[in-house]
Amino acid sequence: MKDYVIRAVAAGGEVRAFACTTRNLVEEARLHHDSLPVATAALGRLLSAGSMMGIMMKGEEDKLTLQIKGDGPIGGVVVTADSKARVKGYVLNPEVDIPLKAEGKLDVGKAIGNGELTIIRDLGLKEPYVGRTSLITGEIAEDLTYYFASSEQVPSVVALGVLVDRDYSVRRAGGFIIQLMPGAGDETIDAIEKKIPMVTSVTQMLDEDMTPEEILTFILEDLGIEITDKVETSFLCDCNKERVEQVLLSIGEKELRGLYEEAKPVELCCQFCGKKYEFMPEEIGELLKSGK
Ligand SMILES: [Zn+2]
Q1: Domains, the chain, ordered by start
Q2: Would you state the pLDDT for residue 84?
Q3: Ligand 1: distance of its center to the CA of 214 in Å?
Q4: Average pLDDT, integer, range 254-267
Q5: How far is the CA of 270 from the centre of ligand 1 (A)?
Q6: Which candidate among 46, 92, 247, 288 keeps its CA 20 to 30 Å from the CA of 197?
Q7: CA 78 to centroid of ligand 1, rounded, Å
Q8: For the segment 109-168, what is each residue's pLDDT rounded down to a tens digit?
């Protein structure tokens, strides 16, 4: 199955919903970062959220950044998305390996720990919109649910799942977001509250070969669901040498001069996709001149 995101409305517009299947793009991310399962799951969950939240934005140039910083061994996860559901992301420590939870699940919460979730929406205005909340469990879906409720005042149900196979490849990935729009009636709220406990786990639904359409229909069928959009989603890194130069400049003039004086080529990797960029000593010299 190709990766895609769907958008839907229900209850005459009182509810909006998104669902995605992202197995291929999460597998691509895993290969870029050579991540172990718990880091693959953390990154995959945030990438799935990014693809759905990406299409919530309307402008062609709009950009979304989801940033998790935690005191657990993973350290942090960063994902960016655009309004066409093109996503990229990385985990600070992809090689983290911690014991499974009692029920045999990957312990993403422990790997992330306590910390903060920051969401930056660059909608082409003077200042980007920045929202920040504390992490609730570090499991990401719960943290986003809390973020939507407290920072954006949008009551939401967020479910994200990544299933990693024995050979560490990604078997399934995806999720859904269901949101109540302002003015949603009690009957609508009741209908959703009744249905959510019947949703076992999104990972299990995906593993039973349920499509995003089937998952949302299962939850919202009593509310007259209408699927309004289907968008392909993919891992896409738009890095180039100029952007990597900025990273090199950000280390500071003294360090940069040190590199220049070593008179050796410097290789830098893109954090998002691992692509290598080489800088010759004379290029570093040019950067030193221009960076002042
Ligand atoms: Zn890149």
Answers
A1: 4-235 (3.55.30.10), 241-290 (3.90.1280.10)
A2: 96
A3: 34
A4: 90
A5: 5
A6: 46
A7: 13
A8: 999 999 999 999 999 889 999 999 999 999 999 999 999 999 999 999 999 999 999 999
CA of 108 to the centre of ligand 1 (A): 25
Cα separations (Å) of 243 from 44, 92, 207, 252, 290?
A: 24, 19, 39, 16, 15
Taking all residues of the chain, what is their mean pLDDT, rounded to a whole number? 95
Quick: pLDDT tens for 199-217: 878 999 999 999 999 999 9
pLDDT at 104 over 90: no
Does the pLDDT of residue 292 top 60, yes or no?
no
Q: For residue 112, how far is its CA from the centre of ligand 1 (angstroms)?
A: 24
Tell me how far the alpha carbon of residue 275 lies from the centroid of ligand 1, in angstroms. 6
Give residue 240 CA to ligand 1 midpoint distance, Å.
7
CA of residue 94 to ligand 1 center, whole Å: 16
> Residues 172-209: pLDDT tens digits?
999 999 999 999 999 999 999 999 988 878 999 999 99
| Cα 274 to averaged position of ligand 1 atoms, centre (Å) | 6
Q: How close is the Cα of 70 to the center of ligand 1, in Å? A: 24
Distance 234 CA to ligand 1 centre (A): 14
Distance (angstroms) between ligand 1 centre and the Cα of 224 equals: 42
Q: What radius of gyration do the chain's Cα atoms show?
A: 21
